[in-house]
Design a protein that fits this description.
Bound molecules: NADP nicotinamide-adenine-dinucleotide phosphate
Strand content: 5-15%
CATH architecture: 3-Layer(aba) Sandwich
CATH superfamily: NAD(P)-binding Rossmann-like Domain
Oligomer: single chain
Helix content: 40-55%
Order of helices and strands: HHEHEHEHEHHEHHEHHEE
Radius of gyration: 18 Å
Strand order of the largest sheet: 3-2-1-4-5-6-7-8
Number of helices: 11
Number of strands: 8
Length: 279
């Protein structure tokens, strides 16, 4: 088992009335529904929902799950403007595009309601932000940035997990997965400073999901934390670091890990290559 600090640091080298109601609902869903109009889900295939699937790791996950024949509910803040995702959906008709901002409860609830009768085997909390780096430097903290980072990286996954819990409960695989980061490791904090808000937000979501695993264990729902490695994405670039793998390589590794998750091994932070990362 490899346990090098480099493998889980983001940037170690460089530091890193019913009818009316229905009409209102239809109007709210209109842009996403048009994007998803061509989608043809297959009730016999498993279903995954991914947040932040318009680029980076989320897009890689959508592509790899689609290649495996899954139904993919690919959510993004602005799916109509997501050219790469729209092209992918044109290639794989089992991809449905939906509008979802993880900081906006109403947008989450609209999607949850639309799929009320659809079992979702795997929900993946992928959406994440780094937050302005200059605001998370000791001596020039700007805690407004902290609030924004927490809203996306910590509270967002809790909102999404709660909203789609019944869909997961109704599924065969019953998995809620959060894309975390080795940068949320408290063990690593002994060795590397900086990136306060991002790292705190990931440590906090690790705790939230660990608690959720305890709450849901008796129901057979698996709550997992998977780290994607150092991936060539916008987020990595804005950290000042460089990725060593592509989003698709990371996605393939994570899908493998997610596939192997069970109630027996879910209480860990697992890297895309199978390495167990220290808390
Ligand atoms: N890259 C790495 O090496 C690395 C390492 C460890 C962990 N991670 C984690 O991996 C996940 C994906 O990151 P990435 O590297 O693929 O970064 P990325 O390319 O910057 O993509 C981030 C994604 O999150 C979405 N997003 C941001 N705010 C959102 C919101 N409020 N609601 C819904 N979606 C939102 C973005 O959508 P917009 O285009 O609309 O902004 C985008 O789709 C994150 O959780 C990140 O912390 C990445």
């Amino acid at each position: 088992m490899r346990r090098t600090l480099q493998s889980f640091s983001l940037n170690l080298a460089g530091r890193l009335g019913a009818f009316a109601c229905a009409l209102v609902m239809m109007a709210a869903l209109a842009p996403a529904a048009s994007a998803a109009a061509a989608s043809q889900s297959d009730a016999s295939a498993p279903t995954v929902l991914i947040t932040g699937s318009n680029r980076g790791i989320g897009l890689g996950l959508a592509r790899q799950y689609a290649k495996l024949g899954w139904n993919v509910i690919a959510t993004a803040r602005h799916p109509d403007a997501a050219e790469d995702l729209k092209n992918l959906a044109a290639e794989y008709p089992r991809i449905s595009l939906e509008t979802l901002d993880v900081t906006d409860q109403a947008s989450i609830d609209v999607v949850a309601e639309k799929y009320r009768d659809t079992p979702i085997d795997v929900v993946i909390n992928n959406a994440g932000i780094l937050g302005k780096l200059e605001d998370q430097v000791l001596g020039s903290f700007n805690h407004e940035t902290f609030e924004k980072v927490l809203a996306v990286n910590t509270i967002g996954p809790m909102r999404v997990a709660e909203a789609f819990l019944d869909h997961v409960r109704a599924s065969d695989q019953k998995k809620i997965i959060t894309v975390t980061s080795g940068f949320g490791s408290i063990a690593l904090a002994k060795h590397v400073g900086g990136f306060y808000y991002y790292r705190i937000s990931k440590a906090a979501v690790n705790m939230a999901m660990s608690i959720m695993q305890s709450d849901l264990r008796k129901e057979g729902v698996i709550v997992g934390l998977v780290s994607p490695g150092r991936v060539q994405t916008e987020l990595m670039k804005s950290s000042g670091g460089s990725g060593t793998i592509t989003p698709d390589e990371s996605a393939l590794g994570m899908i493998d890990i997610i596939e192997g998750l069970s109630l027996e091994n879910s209480s860990a932070m697992i890297n895309y290559d199978g390495e167990i990362l220290p808390w």
